[in-house]
C-alpha cells in the first residue's frame, strides 16, 4: 500500500508566518502594547481608583486583589510611589507592604516577560555603544547583584530597569529575587508614609520621609558616578615587548 504523499506547504503562508514571528514584528508588537498601556493610564488614571476609589474592605482577599491590580498597573507605567502610598493608606503598614511587594514582583515579571519574548532578539544586535555594552555585560554576568543594587538605589526608573534586564541575558530567578529583596526598603518607606499620612508629625512618618529623601539622593549620586565611570576611556592595552636580540 502506497504511503500518502505529503501536501506541499504554501510558500505564501510560510512567508507570512515568518514575517509575523520575526524579531522586528515582535518588537513592533511590544511597542504597540506599551503605547496602548501608557495611553490607557493617561486617559483613565487607574492610580486614582487604587488610591481613593478602592472599596474599604479588609481581609486577605482584598490584599490579594490589590496586589494583582498593583502588578498590572505597574506594568502599565503607573508610578509605584503613588501605589505604595495607596497600599499603606488602605491596608496599613504590614498588609500594605505585603500587597505592594507582591505587586511589584508581579509587575516586574510581566514587563520582563514582554521584553524577553518580544524585544530581546531585535534589540540585542543594537547594543553596539560602549555604554550599552558595559551595562549589558554587567547585567548578564552579575544579574542578581546588579539588579539588587538598582532596586536598592532608585536611580534607574522601574520600567527601564525591567526592560534593560529583559534584553540582557539575565535569568528570571535572579531578576525576580533581586526585585523582591531590593524593593522592600524603599517600598516600606512609602507604605509607612501612606499609613501615617494623617499624622505627619509622628516619628514613623518623619523617619519614612527622611529615608525616601536619602534613598533618592543616594540613587542620584550612584547614577552620576556610574555614568562618569562608564564614560572614562578604556586603558590602553600594554604593548608587547620586542624580544631582545642575542649579543
Automatic annotation (TrEMBL):
The chain crosses the membrane at residues 27-44, 56-78, 90-114, 148-165, 172-193, 205-224. The keyword Membrane applies. Keywords: Cell membrane, Membrane, Transmembrane, Transmembrane helix. It is found in: Cell membrane. It is a multi-pass membrane protein. One of its GO terms (cellular component) is plasma membrane. It comes from the Bacteria. The keyword Membrane applies. Residues 78-195 form the VTT domain. It holds the Pfam family VTT_dom. InterPro entries: TMEM64 (IPR015414), VTT_dom (IPR032816). Belongs to the TVP38/TMEM64 family. This is TVP38/TMEM64 family membrane protein.
